Amino acid sequence: MSSTLAAASLVQSVDWTAVAPPTIAAVVGLAVLVADLFVPQGKKPLLGWISLAGLTAALASLLLLLDGDRETFCLTSDAGVCSYTADRFTVVIQLLVLAGALLTALLSVTPLKNKELPAGEYWFLLLSSAAGAALLPASRDLATLVVALEVASLPAFALVGLRRGDRRSSEAALKFFLSSVTATAVTLLGVSFVYAATGTLHLTEVAAKLTAVDGDLQTLARTGVALTLVGFAFKTAAVPFHFWVPDTYIGAPLPVAAYLSVVGKAVGFTGLILVTVVAFPSYADVWAPALAVLAALTMTAGNVAALRQQAGRAFSAVRLLAWSSVGQAGYLLVPIAAAGYVDDPADAIGATVAYALMYAAVNLGAFAVAALVARTAPENRLSDYRGLYARHPLAALALGFFLLCLAGLPPGIIGLFAKVTVFQAAVDAGLGWLAVVMALNVVIALYYYLRWTAVLFRAPEDEAPVRAVPHAPARAVPFPLTAAIALTAVAGIVLSGAPQMVLRFSETVLF
Q1: How open is the CA angle 265-47-104, to the nearest 5 degrees?
Q2: Are strands 82-86 and 70-74 parallel, antiparallel or unpaired?
Q3: Which candidate in 2, 239, 326, 342 could, as Cys together with 297 as Cys, close a disulfide (CB 3.0–4.6 Å)?
């Protein structure tokens, strides 16, 4: 009888509403993979629309999580310690990653319709990665956190190298794979050390037990914390772990590069927030100064490298966006570092979330316009954008607006407000030197963002690449691509008109 009761106590009821967003994405991904075996070649585009419907359903399921926090997969001995928590922080990040995946899907419909990529494999990998990205913000133990991180990352490797026969794509996938595997190995080693020192994997219990680690285990605990942070620094593309970004973005299919720039970055920063603020708050004196230095180095290296892309007309616009994303990662690191210097880290983390929401909308919009230009100029050089206003006026206006948002200039008010919140988080934490470094980097970034914006409205030059452009109007802009540009532009305009929507939304982020 006692053994029966013990077995029964281990049986848990799953809160399917709480786990709905990642579950829907995963189930639809499996359904698409199976359907690919039976759908005729001529009807493969149907898989794309099924995937879009699945991501839309996953986004809609977030509405069920707005009535309060939900927890599941809890310890039978302590119902308050759970592995999965759907709180406000989880919902905001899931909104970001699922919306980013949905916009990526819109950018992907046309290349897949043109058979540039294998449809079934592509949609399965994208949905699988999105499912892992949606699972990660809800993870509240280190094991689930690492599993979610790998579920989000492993399909991304294959997505980068999915263009068969393309040497540049294969090299990008290999570089991305090797750097990420190294990061995962370091993270797992750090997690194992933390577990050895504390005897638990749940984040809240780790936080409690790290405050009373035995003297003999202090070195082990500190090493574990440091290695875990290094592993997540790889994922966020922080300097000096950023070397894979430019080549990976250039070699990957353009929609995949857009996905990595937003969803991939969100995954890394979400994990970093959870391990620092939730699991390792007692070691803030270790990780806060380290992250502050990383933030300064990352924003400087990214912006200086992006500035160099303006030195010649043959430089790739995608490479500039890649280096720009490294610089933006530095800004995102600032509030996380600031969280280690204040008594209540919620406001600082809210600044990171607000900046991430702004960055996701406008950066995906910039990649959407880049996909439009790539239809007639596959190399996507900066010179290919000259005279874009004459060819596609609305797309040029949208790209100009996105670049101004990234620069933090009107009419991109949401970009300005997001930068102000990050700047304020640094000042409130007493990191005046970091605020100065950030201000200098904002000035550097103004140059290359404004110069790219100016190119859009210049008269086209009489050169061979431009003479090929008059053929472009004969090719109508596909509806999914138009929808992606329109959705991101509307999001940026609405948020610039009412930036308090994001700021108030992010201010309520609590753990």
Answers
A1: 25
A2: antiparallel
A3: 239
Provide the β-strand partners of residue 139.
Answer: 84
Q: Could you give the CA distance from residue 86 to residue 93 in angstroms, rounded to a whole number?
A: 10
348-364: average pLDDT: 89
Average pLDDT over residues 84-113: 91
Is 358 found in the same domain as 303? yes
Q: Are residues 158 and 251 in the same domain?
A: yes
The total domain count for the chain is 2
For the residues 428-445, what does the mean pLDDT come to? 93
Q: Does residue 430 share a domain with residue 402?
A: yes
Indicate whether this model's pTM tops 0.70.
Answer: yes
Full domain range(s) for residue 129: 24-172+243-279
- Cβ–Cβ under 8 Å, residues 440 and 302: no
AA identity, residue 213:
V
**181-204 per-position pLDDT tens digit:** 888 889 999 999 999 998 889 998
Q: Residue 137 and residue 29: Cα distance in Å, rounded?
A: 20
Largest CA distance in the chain: 88
- C-beta separation of 303 from 444 below 8 A: yes
Residue 509 binned pLDDT confidence (cut-offs 50, 70, 90): low
What is the SS3 assignment for 71?
Answer: strand
